[in-house]
Fold this protein.
Amino acid sequence: MIAILPAGESAVLVEYDELPSVLGNFRALDASRIPGVIDLIPAARTILIEYDNTITAHQLVEKWVRGAVPIELTADESGRPAVEIPVRYDGPDLVEVGKLTGLGVDGVIDAHTAASWTVAFIGFAPGFAYLTSSETRLEVPRRSDPRRQVPAGAVGVAGPFTGVYPRCSPGGWQLIGTTELSVWDAERRPPALLLPGTTVTFVRA
């Protein structure tokens, strides 16, 4: 069940019941863009679709959205190259995550590196990708006392997601490691290394 809401004169907001529906429909829509569609911006339960209203119309966009057949997430259908991120598993919350999950430190690292992750959407900061996977054992709450500064390259987990902080910023995720790989570079095109639909794996640095 979806709801399609107007968002100004040249955009619609599509609401879905759950994140897997967003991911499957985002892939389907991204692979079958109709003329006039400018951008697709997924979030946890929605996709914002921006379009040129001199080329297409709300009714045509709605018909396209409702006709989309979700693409399963068992394989990378985005056409984007997979990204491998080397991580030093030295995060200040690694031991705590091991306790919260019951996996222990080695178990957390094994689960994090064994999973195939997919960028679901871009979140609170430019280049901050929310990655999801079928691995549920790493689901932990955010910290009760968020840090005022989290360094760029910090790798964290929170809820069903993992992510890499693109720059120094406040943050409440549980930090399990660090990467030297830059996920955001304003001089790069596109600046973000991790885009919605990208498949990501983590390896020990």
In short: The first helix runs from residue 19 to 30. The domain at 3-66 is CATH 3.30.1360.40 (Gyrase A; domain 2). Helices lie at 19-30, 58-66, 94-101, 104-114. The first strand starts at residue 3 and ends at 6.
